[in-house]
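Q: We require from you a single protein entry containing the residue sequence and its fold in token form, and nothing else.
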Amino acid sequence: NSKQRRNRNKKSSDAAANAPPPLTEEEKQKLEEKKRIAEQKAAEEEERKRQEEIQRAIGEAKQKREEEQTDLTRRVKEACASLEKFVEESAQRKENRNQMA
């Protein structure tokens, strides 16, 4: 037990002896500046990704709107053609009735 305790004490004193000296104020400031720059870059990258996502969503919405508009235009044209056909057929039936009378 005492041998283990001595080994633990020796290891901790070795670690303390091998530990780097405390940082100077200038080193601390440099580290803080590096940290601040890294955080700023991370925030800028996050904002860039957010803006890309917004632009992608806008593009998808525009495309969907264009597709819907194209579909509506096609349906209106079909409805107009159907109505024209109905009017022509009605006129033809009326003319046939008049000829029979």
